[in-house]
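Pilot study result, target chain (208 residues):
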Amino acid sequence: MRTSLTVVSAVRLVVAIAIVTAVVGQLVVLVRGNVFRPWDFFGYFTIQSNCVAAVVLVAVVVLAARGRSTSRLTFVRAAATTYMATTGVVYNTLLVHVPLGAFGLAWSNDVLHRWVPLYLALDWLFVDDRRPISLRRVPWFLVYPAVWLGVVLVRGGTDGWVPYPFLDPRQGYGVVAIACVAIGVFITLIGIVVARVARVRLLRVERR
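Predicted structure:
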């Protein structure tokens, strides 16, 4: 199958705008409720991974508009896809019934936890403006999540804030350690799938 790069770029831009709108929507609700804490709000992996996805999508659109190859952003697209897939799977399997203070706006919650992860996965699977990725590069996908986990663990042990219950040190650091290892293994597996899918060509993009 073939499609126009213009169409693909338009959809990507719409998704990026939807992400920004959803994040701002959640933020406004918290500000109006006088419960907005920047370090807490932007400490959620959901918020960070969606912001990464929005930046990457806009960057790809800008490259396309300038007539430059979007495949040069293959690695960062793969990383963003891995993080968003992780967000979607973890939320919809472990956290969907857990009240998360920063996500009280229903439509925004759905956009950030369901629709954007789904779109990023489909965009990666179907659109061929990417290069193959070596499995040797997959471990690099773990660098950002490792830093994020480190910050969360420090905060959990100091001011007591954690974004998700399975990282709460009050459950015992053994439980938290298992959760961290599980997160690392899961992201690695998702990264391997993303790298493998990079070799698939289902939708050929034409510049016109």
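One observation from the pilot: The radius of gyration is 18 Å. A full batch analysis is planned for the follow-on phase.
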